[in-house]
Description:
This protein has helices at 52-63, 159-176, 200-209, 231-256, 295-298, 301-312, 315-334, 361-365, 381-388, 406-425, and strands at 2-4, 73-75, 79-85, 90-95, 129-134, 148-149, 157-158, 180-183, 260-264, 285-289, 346-349, 355-358, 370-375, 396-398, 401-403. The protein is of the alpha/beta class.
Amino acid sequence: MLASVHxxxxxxxxxxxxxxxxxxxxxxxxxxxxxxRPDWSELEKYQExxxxxRFVELINQVYCTHGFSPDLIKIDADSATILTxxxxxxFFKLRFARTNADAKPVVNPWTATKSLPPKxxxxxxxxxxxxxxxxxxxxxxxxxxxxxxxxxxxxPVREGDMTLLVARxxxxxxxxxxxxxxxxxxxxxxxxxxxxxxxxxxxxDVLRRAGTEKPRExxxxxxDPLREQTVRWQSELLFYRNGExxxxxxxxxxxxxxxxxxxxxxxxxxxxxxxxxxxxxNNHVHLLVNGAYLQAELDDxxxxxxxxxxxxxxxxxxxxxxxxxxxxxxxxxxELPPYHYKTENVTPLGKxxxxxxxxxxxxxxxxxxxxYLEPYAMNSRDVYQRIQAGDYEGTRKIxxxxxxxxxxxxxxxxxxxxxxxxxATRK
Length: 427
């Protein structure tokens, strides 16, 4: 079954959980921008569900690989003491299970692979609820979100349109394999009812905290070197990169309750002027799971809470195995090498070289196993020609090589990886 959900249609079903969007920065000094005050009592359900050793392993090797202050999280033999409010100096005590045999079961809104009904060879994804999250917005929003470029009069490249096409094709494929599939975004529009103007005051607060007391309201096009110091640029960023993703998280967590979310993206190298972009030879693929929090991120009460919620839910148990299989399928299908980060906000995971932990809003806030897929560099010379060819059935010769459409190749890699994983791991 395929279900599609659009933000405005959800207004009657979901609470409008955007109170943080009307807060000024000084009203919430210990929260990330647009972050919500956490309810630490929600972690009570994780009491005695995880051993000390497993907690330490996950926090050191996946979630806090850049280190953390003992003032924030103090780990003892039987429990961890966690700072809940930096201003009030309050704490939450998490009790560990003595042994794995003593560990209480974790109650999650998603179903772990081991708890799914016995596998059906004809439909290996039966009883599995998958949400597909097509990255970005596309359409008329593509230029604003800086996911657009064009060469001459050729068809513009809009990542949001491309991911939506992949999601629609993939949904049909996964349905045929037995899954119940939902699209988090089914149009080239935001799911949030908010718009950039709703974030202007917060943008001013953000700029003031950064030292810009009297920011300009607007910028002079994409070449303006000081555009990031304007209210318009910051309010647009808050809209599409923060508020929009938080709204998608509300849809995933409070409406859909999937067992797995696949965040579908295309990668890119720096392309410079979007009207005169630089095409490159580089092409690659990688996958992301939540983790590798920076110490400054852990200082925010909401991000520290969300990190612990993700860790204690044992989502990584599902993510790690599936990521390895999906990475292998993407690598073999696309014949692309892994991407290598030049920044320090990630941690490599596993043995394939294709998987990284990184703290992104989506991978952090979606309360179920979540994989963030980044195949292909859109401004690679090879990929660009395949994008210009559009979607098509069968194969065509492009750049001297007979290939399926890039979208169907993407779908094939993901569908094959999911099939391989669930056939191997379901009883």
